[in-house]
């Protein structure tokens, strides 16, 4: 049985759902913010307290890499085997609801999650890397970061025309990096089905740069 459990105060577009099984042996409460106007809702099987534990493990580092930036440090998640697995499972559960051909991930922290997800799904992995790191012929796209300017590249032969791709990165801030990834995907003929992030900094409104691509993030600040 699926029932609406509680509406989030901040946005009437999002509801928190509870998933209940009558058999007590399998009784669990799975909670996720679901965009009721978006694509068909997915309910994560991960308990809310696990997601909260992940959130509490992300460390804020002030004034890194430059004054005024609060850096979301995911290394406390990575160094804990259970939490690292939980973080990967968030992406994995979501990807299992989609029809996709390959995972695209962004240099460098996106690789940590993207490669694990691609391995588990048995699909190919495409790397979007900072300028000068990819050895073969590339397409490139420049963009503005929360803390600087940069250029991203992708191999021109990464994708077969029309392949369905899911983009994975650790964090969505201003959206510049992901928007450049979206540009690259379009340039090489791929179809970006969804962009997924472990963390989203809502106040920077990065998801607007990715419209109309659906954006899923698991921990929003
Ligand atoms: P943006 O292009 O502004 O959305 O920035 C996203 C990319 O930069 C991601 O690949 C993040 O790893 C990194 N990033 C940007 N801002 C932060 C932040 N405050 N904390 C951690 N990583 C960040």
Task: For the structure shown, list the relevant keywords.
about 220 residues, alpha/beta, Rossmann fold, 7-stranded mixed beta sheet, 3-stranded antiparallel beta sheet, about 35% strand, disordered N terminus, binds adenosine monophosphate
Describe this structure in words.
By secondary structure, the protein is α/β, with parallel strands linked by helices. It has 2 domains: 1-37, no CATH class; 38-220, 3-Layer(aba) Sandwich (Rossmann fold). Helices cover 24% and strands 34% of the residues. It is built from 5 helices and 12 strands. It has helices at 48-57, 75-78, 81-95, 109-121, 176-187, and strands spanning 2-7, 14-19, 33-35, 59-62, 70-73, 102-106, 124-130, 138-145, 148-155, 164-172, 191-200, 215-220. The protein has a 7-stranded mixed beta sheet, sandwiched between helices. A 3-stranded antiparallel beta sheet has the order 1-2-3, with no helix packed on it. Strand 4 and strand 5 (70-73) form a beta hairpin. Helix 3 (81-95) packs across helix 4. The chain binds adenosine monophosphate (AMP). Adenosine monophosphate (AMP) binds at residues 69-72, 106, 109, 145-146, 169-178, 206.
Largest sheet: 7 strands, mixed
* Alpha plus pi helix count: 5
From the N-terminal CA to the C-terminal CA, the straight-line distance is 30 Å
User: What is the CATH topology descriptor of the largest domain?
Assistant: Rossmann fold
Output the radius of gyration: 18 Å
What fraction, in percent, of the residue positions are helical?
A: 10-25%
Total domains, how many?
Answer: 2
What hetero molecules are bound to the protein chains? adenosine monophosphate
Number of E-state strands = 12
Low-confidence stretches: 1-42
SSE string, helix = H, strand = E? EEEHEEHHEHEEEEHEE
| Class from secondary-structure proportions | alpha/beta
For the residues shown, what is the average pLDDT? 85
- In which order are the strands of the major sheet placed? 8-9-7-6-10-11-12
Given the C-alpha coordinates, what overall shape results? globular
**CATH class call of the largest domain:** Alpha Beta
User: How big a fraction of the residues is strand?
Assistant: 25-35%
